[in-house]
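Run log, item B.
One chain of 272 residues. Sequence copied directly from the ordering sheet:
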Amino acid sequence: MYSKTGIRIFEEMTWKDVEELLKLTDVCIVPVGAVEQHGHHLPLGSDTFIAQEMACRTCAVLQKKGMYVGVGPSIPFGVHPEAMHYPGSIQIMPSTLVLLLKEVCRALDQMGFRRIVLLMGHDGNIPPMQVALQELQIEQNMDVMCVNWLLPHLADQKRIFPTDWADGHGGARETSRALAAFPELVQMDKVVPFIKPNVLRKEVLFSNEPLVGGAVYRPMTKGSMKYYPDNCPGQLGDPSSATAEAGDALYDVLAEWLADLLVQEYNLKVVD
């Protein structure tokens, strides 16, 4: 799946392409996604695809300034016990994700990517990402950074796409990002304009700070997104008003922020 930015991810490159990339940078962004249900209208790989697009757009922002980072390889599996009763969802245990991330980071370090960014694509992956980072630092003194973009950009998301209800998994904003990045995989004709009665308020469940990296971490538990008597389609919010234009605006804010973060943390320089 090619990004419209023209930036290629690892999976789309040859080994010679990666060899050439290493002459420009030793920084690599690793999108950490999931294969998880996202309602009737979004593909199972949405978390991975969206994280890949964030990374590609960040690279594009940096390249306009003469700076380079790599994108990939992507981690397509994550931790989401709440979704496992929906066909298609594939979960791995947190300990498995920790080991997988460590092996991938070691391989990247061995080939020459000395600074690695684990980019969150699914919030249930945050704890394993942080554990993998700490263990790599302790065991091998590797330079790995975890990035959770949700918390610093809650206000931006609400400003760019305001709603009168809580918006989250498979909702209007996530669907907008999907429409902007992979519209051919979005089935808007199958959208269900469903909002659970207990998420009709704006500042509530599944879209607030405690669930995205704040003072309290209380993830959804096994079976907490079961089909309800009113046939919940597996989403949090109403995606029917989603637009590609809103998705592009959301990506723009995220890409600029992540690009600035990498310049600051890694002291990126212009490549002659």
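Observations after the first pass:
- The longest helix spans residues 244-266.
- Helices lie at 15-21, 46-64, 94-111, 126-140, 154-160, 172-181, 244-266.
Flagged for discussion on Thursday.
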